[in-house]
Amino acid sequence: MTSRDTMQMARDEREAFATLLEGLTPQQWESPTLCKGWRVRDVVAHVVGYDPLSRLQLLRRMTKGLVTRGGANTVGVAEYASRSPEELTALMRQYAVPRGLTAGFGGRIALTDGMIHQQDIRRPLGIPRTIPAEPLRIALDFATWAPRILGGLRARGLRLIATDLDWTHGKGPEVRGSGEALLLAMAGRAAALDDLDGPGKTKLAQRI
Q1: Which domains does the chain have, with CATH numbers?
Q2: Which residues of the chain have pLDDT under 70?
Q3: CA separation, residue 81 to residues 2, 38, 94, 136, 195 (Å)
């Protein structure tokens, strides 16, 4: 899998995200998500809020995040608090091709972050999605070692088995479920546990 391939997947993910946003009502934009304390608009601001930054601007945000509760992500969301849903959706389209920080690892940061955060919005709103298998597999692999996700730590000593695509990870008591549910569980979303089963589920739940 080349960086060009994964970058195209990241672009497709953001385009799909923008399409979702275009269909939301004003009330849905203010609805809670799986990200504690964040509304839909806050999640969207987080997803695209790093792309416009220069290196100096990124450094300033990271520095400010050191003394702000919630860190740089909270700082970034606050910076976009006045943006309308239309403006946030336009930014998702404008930065469909990831830039800067989110372009890291051949676009895997943007792909995985966008995929998780789409589900953070979709699950509470009851808007299901069938995620294409290959991008989901890439995101699952990345989540097992990406430092900010901590998927590998949550899954240590367990064998994760996707029931809807060819993907497994680790050794130990099994945890089975859809690739989407496994991805969200590795990202610390307790809501995904209801869609998982197996003898290792209790241990995984204790780590979320």
Answers
A1: 3-125 (no CATH), 133-206 (3.30.1050)
A2: 1
A3: 36, 11, 18, 30, 33
CA distance 160 to 155: 7
**Residue-by-residue DSSP string for 48-90:** HSSTT--HHHHHHHHHHHTTSTTHHHHHHHHHTTT--HHHHHH
Return the pLDDT at 2: 73
Average model confidence (pLDDT) across the chain: 94
Q: φ and ψ at 146, to 5 degrees?
A: -65, 125
In the 8-state DSSP scheme, what is residue 46?
H
pLDDT in tens, 124-179: 999 999 999 999 999 999 999 998 898 999 999 999 999 999 999 999 999 999 99
> Which tokens hold the place of 194?
């209801």
Q: How many CA atoms lie within 13 A of 31 on its CB side?
A: 16
CB distance 178 to 110 below 8 Å: no
Q: For 15, phi and psi rounded to 5 degrees?
A: -65, -40
